[in-house]
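During the reporting period the student researcher (J.K.) took over the structure-prediction task from the postdoctoral fellow and processed the backlog of single-chain submissions. One of the processed entries is reproduced below for the supervisory committee.
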Amino acid sequence: MSRAASAGDAPAARGMPPVIYAFALSAFALGFTEFVTIGLVPAIAASLRVEVEAIGGAVAAFALGATIGAPILTALAAAWPRRRLLLAAMALFTLGNVAVALSTSLPVLLVARFGSGLGHGVFLAVASSAATRLVPPERAGAAVATVFGGLTLALAFGVPLGTFLGGIWTWQAIFLAVAACGGIGFVGLAVLMPRAQDGGTPRDALVSLRALLDLRLLAAAGVTVLAYTGSFCLFSYIAPLLIDVTGLAPAHVGALMLVYGVAAAIGNVVGGTVTDRVGPDRASMLVLIGLVFVLVAIWLAARSLPPMTLLVAALGALTYAAVPAMQARVIGIAERHAPRALAAAAGLNIAGFNAGIALGSLIGGGVIAAWGVSAIALVGAAAAAVGLCFLAVPWRRP
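J.K. obtained the following structure tokens:
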């Protein structure tokens, strides 16, 4: 479906098309299954009779599937109509969660998590690019924010809700409930997604794969990698920082994580609005400047709880305000320079989010081993500052 056609559509002009809310519901299920696993690690380990640290592979397998699925599978399926591809991704995700719930051994669990991660990556890539085509251009940022709003709600409530449900349900029942949410999302997409001849040709798969090597798109995704490296260099180890440096009681860490998650949900909405008002380039720059400032402030104020409460909330808001800004920025670059590869470009940025989270976690662990937990804030600020420099460079196609 062309942007011109969608912009002239009366419902799109008045508000968000209903299918975008189906995208958001599906994104909630996608995010929930990623984050809920963190709260269920002990129960899964005991059930499968493996060590707790082995279940960490289930988190990594999902993230790896999302990283591969978002750019590569989306590019290979460029000839498919968007509706069919979204339904296939949601079906893969749903069946993957059913397989997780039925797993009786760790290898089966890891394969099932990888498969559901593939569906996660493809769905978010295609849904975020499709959402911008279903609304007028001036509402593209809000549309992306709505899609990712489901993901940020999953972040806000996934871990605490998963921990709570783990006390009253089995972990298998929780993953079956996630699969049921995925099934509802699948039905919503089947009913609400317009039937459009928006597929490409087999040649478009090659065009999309080539677009993944476009220096402008790689640089834009690189900004996302650096922003999330900076944020998650600290956030991955926020609990030891709050306990060992700030002096917060371990029992109260969960409450501050809820503050982070609620602020993230608010930041996602505000980020979409700001993106529409000032444009994705300026919005991305504002987010990066804010991240640098907040991370340095955390380093300075880490020993005092009142400012840390505000700064943790600000970190959550800025981290997820970056989602609509940076996703809209990559899609905008692709519209100008690779219009036949919008979904693949969006997937490249989804991979950037996941790569930044993984890289931030690895760097943060090394920083703690070398210089202590307080240093992660400064190193995170440095990564965000490098992202700001990337943003300022006029990258050109080689």
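The committee noted the following: Confidence is low (pLDDT under 50) at residues 1-13.
J.K. will present the remaining backlog at the next meeting.
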